[in-house]
């Protein structure tokens, strides 16, 4: 590819002069002979201006068609905006760079799959078994997984830094004086397209059982600090109803030894947990502090407003498209991107340190 510097070297002038001549700069004082020589050399070296190359690249990209495969249903998206926000990020970035999403598929059985091998790439949102995805679209270099529970070393992947968010949340709670800290999250599943049931921790695949990375980070940090209590490590459904029933069960099973703080794996779960605490006469944050995940729109309008970890879901979708673009341009090695989160401090954690009495009179 010929450059302006190469033309300048052949013409015996500066690169700036070549650039201004080729862009028909009328303010440039240069002889007609020099001007004609520059144009002649540019033609001889088959120089193509950047804007022309860019137009050709955009035209080529506009002919690219990709597919979007999601496990979440439209109903799921209505109840929890996490995956819909990722999808919107994908759609916006595709529109910006001229990519066409010609096929949107959902793994819930409502989709007519049809032929997908003619697509130029595939973005998979959610934990769908990679073997099933490969049976659907056989080129691993043009598949990007977003928010998959496994590492999937052979594929491009985009994930939120949940482990870092848990560490920040627990550091904040510890700084407030909390010792009895619970975690409540759902079960991670790797879904199958070819089976009616999902793979979960009881149905292993060849990468090992899927684990909630938030739960694992919580367990490790609490064990290292000598504060881990198995009874405080709770599992519930990823929903407001799950958070509600899970909090009721936690209160019943822990009694007077209930935690003084609880980290929840999603904001919808935190919404349900907050209602359960209100109904039980347990004040937030005076009796129990709450922290969520996602920073959905309603989080800042709850009573009290919810401290949470903002997950940049739209950015995750945009990043997935960028990775696919790089693959279409020839990148060979798989890339794994972790998108940072932000800790949003609001009133559900309070601003006062927890008393010794609330911590059972213990100093640790």
Automatic annotation (TrEMBL):
Keywords: DNA-binding, Transcription, Transcription regulation. The keyword Membrane does not apply. GO terms for molecular function: DNA-binding transcription factor activity; transcription cis-regulatory region binding. Residues 2-57 form the HTH lacI-type domain. SMART domains: HTH_LACI (SM00354). Transmembrane segments: none annotated. PANTHER family: HTH-TYPE TRANSCRIPTIONAL REGULATOR EBGR, LACI-RELATED TRANSCRIPTIONAL REPRESSOR. This is Transcriptional regulator. It comes from Paenibacillus oryzae.
């Amino acid at each position: 590819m010929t450059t302006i510097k190469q033309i300048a070297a052949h013409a015996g002038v500066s690169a700036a002069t070549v650039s201004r001549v080729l862009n028909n700069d009328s303010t440039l004082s240069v002889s007609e002979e020099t001007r004609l020589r520059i144009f002649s050399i540019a033609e001889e070296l088959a120089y193509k201006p950047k804007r022309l190359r860019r137009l050709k690249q955009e035209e080529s990209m506009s002919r690219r068609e990709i597919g979007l495969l999601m496990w979440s249903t439209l109903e799921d998206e209505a109840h929890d905006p996490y995956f819909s926000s990722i999808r919107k990020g994908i759609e916006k970035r595709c529109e910006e760079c001229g990519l066409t999403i010609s096929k949107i598929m959902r793994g819930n059985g409502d989709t007519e799959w049809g032929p997908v091998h003619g697509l130029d790439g595939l973005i998979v949102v959610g934990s769908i078994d990679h073997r099933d995805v490969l049976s659907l679209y056989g080129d691993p270099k043009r598949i990007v997984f977003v928010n998959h529970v496994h590492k999937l070393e052979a594929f491009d992947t985009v994930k939120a830094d949940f482990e870092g968010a848990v560490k920040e949340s627990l550091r904040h709670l510890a700084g407030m004086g909390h010792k009895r800290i619970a975690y409540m999250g759902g079960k991670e599943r790797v879904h199958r397209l070819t089976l009616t049931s999902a793979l979960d921790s009881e149905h292993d695949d060849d990468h090992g059982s899927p684990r909630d990375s938030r739960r694992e980070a919580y367990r490790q940090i609490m064990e290292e600090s000598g504060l881990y209590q198995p009874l405080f490590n709770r599992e519930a459904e990823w929903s407001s109803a799950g958070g509600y029933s899970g909090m009721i069960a936690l209160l019943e099973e822990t009694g007077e030894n209930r935690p003084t703080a609880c980290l929840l794996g999603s904001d919808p779960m935190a919404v349900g947990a907050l209602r359960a605490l209100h109904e039980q006469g347990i004040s937030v944050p005076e009796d129990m502090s709450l922290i969520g995940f996602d920073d959905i729109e309603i989080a800042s309008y709850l009573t009290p407003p919810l401290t949470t970890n903002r997950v940049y879901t739209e950015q995750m979708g945009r990043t997935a498209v960028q990775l696919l673009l790089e693959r279409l341009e020839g990148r060979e090695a798989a890339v794994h991107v972790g998108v940072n989160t932000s800790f949003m401090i609001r009133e559900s954690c309070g601003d006062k340190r927890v008393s010794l009495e609330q911590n059972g009179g213990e100093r640790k």
